[in-house]
Amino acid sequence: MIPQRPDVESPDKTGTLSHDWIVGFVDGEGCFHVGINKNDETQFGHQILPEFTVVQHERDINLLHRLRSAMRCGVVRRNHGDRFCWRVRDLKSLVQVIIPFFERHRLKSKKGVDFCKFAKIVKKMVAKEHLTEEGFTEICRMVRTMNTCKRKEVRLKRESIPE
Amino acid sequence: MIPQRPDVESPDKTGTLSHDWIVGFVDGEGCFHVGINKNDETQFGHQILPEFTVVQHERDINLLHRLRSAMRCGVVRRNHGDRFCWRVRDLKSLVQVIIPFFERHRLKSKKGVDFCKFAKIVKKMVAKEHLTEEGFTEICRMVRTMNTCKRKEVRLKRESIPE
Questions:
Q1: A68-97 pLDDT, tens per residue?
Q2: Which residues pair with B32 in a beta bridge?
């Protein structure tokens, strides 16, 4: 059999995404973010919204779909302009899929520190701790210590995080 | 023996960087760039400067050193402000280390298309083709078709690329 020359003219569009590749890509492009938005209908006037996102230019939307398929959760949506994101917001997917994955396959960048805080917050929410004043205050305190990828945006939002 | 609970409080600072992790991280954060700078001392009035870079905030400078150690080439330097980069510029390292690595371990994002053009240009330079008018013109044509990560900066520089 004559060995075939690998096709290096175009990116690898179809192969499996290995765990290590996913960790490397998320170390670069992922974001573990906890939004705290004003919402008068909730108990403490604010809603806590954890989300995991990976944003890409639309030319790599296929890669976002592959990530979603590999992890079997989340949605691919337009983020803004020509940017799309793979986004996981629901607590069940975060606590059953995303968090265990990055606990088993550790991030190598400082994003790993944010991930740990993110995981603790999500677990507190699953345990309904955010519905007590003490739990809610503790989560807000943790969110303020997170460096997120969307620093500017978050700095603005942070002004509204209750002390 | 009692199994130890893995330390998930801090990022993985010391483990080996696997090939797949490096590919994933470069799919996110790497840049294959070919600069064409005016230089009256060169044959055609321009110097062709291929470089491979990974830029990170200074908090992850350790990761850049680990990449440099894993690939055994390049330098870690301040890029601008609080950003640092691992940068490989010398043709020997590009053609003997970086290019063979990404030919064996294929990028999954559209960055792979740029990588192929980058690899062709570097190989032409090693073969001294850029010293002929035909080769120089062909390289300039290829550079104009590259989407790079530093789009704005490159758009400005492109105005000076000879037709």
A1: 999 999 999 999 999 999 999 999 999 999
A2: B52
